[in-house]
Amino acid sequence: MAGTIRVLHVDDDPDFTELTATFLERENARLSVTSATDTREGMRRLDESDIDCIVSDYDMPGQTGIDFLDSVREEYTELPFILFTGKGSEEVAADAISAGATDYIQKELGTGQYTVLANRITNSVEQHRARRRSERANRRRRQTLTRITDGFVEMDADLTVTDVNEQTVELTGLSRETLLGMNYRADIAEADDNPSIEGYEQVIETGEPQTVEALSDINEGRWIEERIFPTEDRDGVYVYFQDITERKERERKLQTQTRRLQGVLDSVQAALWMRDTENRFILANQNYRDLFDIDSEIDLAGVDVAELFDQETVDRLRETDQRVLSRGEPIKVEEEVETAYGMRAYLARITPLFDDDGEVFATAGAAVDITERRERERTLTALHTAAQKIEQSEDEQTVYKTLVETAENVLQFDLVAVDIERDGYLVQEFWRYNSEGAGCLEKTSLESDDTFAARAYNRQETITVDDLREVDTKTADDDYRSALTVPIGRFGTLQAASSEVGAFDEYDREFAELLVEHARVKLDQLAMASDRRT
C-alpha cells in the first residue's frame, strides 16, 4: 500500500525519540515521525495532526503508556497504538492488550529493534486502512441493497414463467417478452440437481414456503436468495428474489477476518477470552483452550462456563465476571488455578465491554502465567535469608556449610559440592549428594585444566553444561548429564551436577552466582581478619 505513514512517538527521553525517528525513517521511507516528550504534548500533536499510528513508552512522568492509551481511545477508538517500552513484564503486556493496544514491543539493545518496530507500524496501519476501506464499501453496499426491491416471478406447476415484474427484468438483464413462456427446467437450469428447482417442487408438493440461496442460473457468478410461496390453488409458485452476491462476499470476508483474528489471538502468549453477561463464551484463544485442556474442535461460542468447569471454578468465574459487570470497570485478579499443567499462578485483567448505548454486554479477559515469577521471588527471599546467615558467620566452615545447604534446599540442586583451593589443588571438603554412590573427584590439580572445576577456577568464570556426554571433559561420574560450576573467587568453586540433561537454566546460574558472591565477600572479610591477627 503506497502513501506516507505519519507516526507519533511519545517518550520522555528526547535523545531516544530523536534516535528512534532517525532509524525508523531510515528503515522505511514511507514513515514520517513526529516526537513528543510527554503525554500532554502527545495529545496536542495528535489533535493538531493527521496521525496514522502512535508509538509510546510505558514508564513516563505523570502518565504511564497505558494511561495515555486510555486517553487516546476516548477520542480515537481505532487508531493503531504500539507500546514500545523497556519495562518488560507479563503484567504490562497483559494491561496493554486488555486496554486495546495494537501491539507491544520491548526495547532492546542494537538497531535491529527499529526494523521490527518499522514493520509492526507499517502492518498495523495498512490493516487499519484496509478495515476502514472495507467498512466504507460495506456501508455503500448496504445503502444500495436498501433501495433495491425484490424481483418477482410467477410459474405454473410445470415451472413455466407466467409473469414477472420490472425489477426481474433489471436483475436478469432479459426482457419481459423473453422471460414469459420460458420453462425453468428446460430453458434456464444448468444442472439436474438444481437447488432452485428442488425448492419449487417441494413447495408445490407440501404447500410450505421455503427460502433457497443459490448461484444464479442466468447471471453467472451471482448469488440470489429466493423466497418461494405456493400459489392459491397450489398449481404453481410465486418467487420473490434478490441479488445477495454482496452479502455472500461480506460473509466470506467476515469468515476470513474471523479466522485471521483467531489466528492473531492464538499467537498471543496470554490466555484471552470473552464472555457475555450470562457467563457464556463469545470466544477464547488457543492458549486459553490449552490452559484448561479444551478441545480445539469445540465451538465455544454460546457455551456456558458450567459446561466446561467444576462447580468451584464456575462459582469463582461467575463471581469475578459479576464484579466487573456491576462496577463497569476493569479489575485485576491474581490467583492459583488448577490447569492441564497442574496448579499454576496467574495474573488476569478482566475488562467490561460496552455497546453503543453504553451498556455492558460482555467481559474480556487476559491472563498471564506468573508461576515462575512467584517462584523466583520466593527463591530471592530465601537467598536473602541465606546471605544474612553467611554475613553472620564467624568462620569459613560455616560459610561453606551454608553455601552447600542453600544450594541444595533453596536452589533445589541434586548434587552439590564445594572444592577449596589448597596448594595448587581443588580439594572437595563440603558436599551434599542426594544420589547414593555418586562419584566425586576428591582432589583436582589446577594445572591440568581438564575438569570444569579447574577450568572455572582458573578462568574465574561460571561454566554451565547442558549435556556432559557431548563434551570432552573429565567428570566424576558417568551418570552426571549436566553441570554448573561457579568460582568462589580465590577460595575455590561451587559445583552442582544432575542426572538430567539441561537441568540448569539461566535463573539457576543467576541465583547460584548471587549466592556465591555473598560467600566470596564474607570469605574475603574472614581472611583479612585472620591476616591482621597474625
From TrEMBL:
<feature type="domain" description="PAS">
    <location>
        <begin position="257"/>
        <end position="328"/>
    </location>
</feature>
<dbReference type="InterPro" id="IPR000014">
    <property type="entry name" value="PAS"/>
</dbReference>
<keyword id="KW-0597">Phosphoprotein</keyword>
<dbReference type="Pfam" id="PF00072">
    <property type="entry name" value="Response_reg"/>
</dbReference>
<feature type="domain" description="PAS">
    <location>
        <begin position="137"/>
        <end position="198"/>
    </location>
</feature>
<feature type="modified residue" description="4-aspartylphosphate">
    <location>
        <position position="57"/>
    </location>
</feature>
<dbReference type="InterPro" id="IPR029016">
    <property type="entry name" value="GAF-like_dom_sf"/>
</dbReference>
<dbReference type="Pfam" id="PF08448">
    <property type="entry name" value="PAS_4"/>
</dbReference>
<dbReference type="Pfam" id="PF13185">
    <property type="entry name" value="GAF_2"/>
</dbReference>
<keyword id="KW-0808">Transferase</keyword>
<protein>
    <submittedName>
        <fullName>PAS domain-containing protein</fullName>
    </submittedName>
</protein>
<dbReference type="InterPro" id="IPR011006">
    <property type="entry name" value="CheY-like_superfamily"/>
</dbReference>
<feature type="domain" description="Response regulatory">
    <location>
        <begin position="6"/>
        <end position="122"/>
    </location>
</feature>
<dbReference type="InterPro" id="IPR035965">
    <property type="entry name" value="PAS-like_dom_sf"/>
</dbReference>
<dbReference type="InterPro" id="IPR052155">
    <property type="entry name" value="Biofilm_reg_signaling"/>
</dbReference>
<keyword id="KW-0418">Kinase</keyword>
<dbReference type="InterPro" id="IPR001789">
    <property type="entry name" value="Sig_transdc_resp-reg_receiver"/>
</dbReference>
<dbReference type="InterPro" id="IPR003018">
    <property type="entry name" value="GAF"/>
</dbReference>
<dbReference type="InterPro" id="IPR013656">
    <property type="entry name" value="PAS_4"/>
</dbReference>
<dbReference type="InterPro" id="IPR000700">
    <property type="entry name" value="PAS-assoc_C"/>
</dbReference>
<feature type="domain" description="PAC">
    <location>
        <begin position="331"/>
        <end position="382"/>
    </location>
</feature>
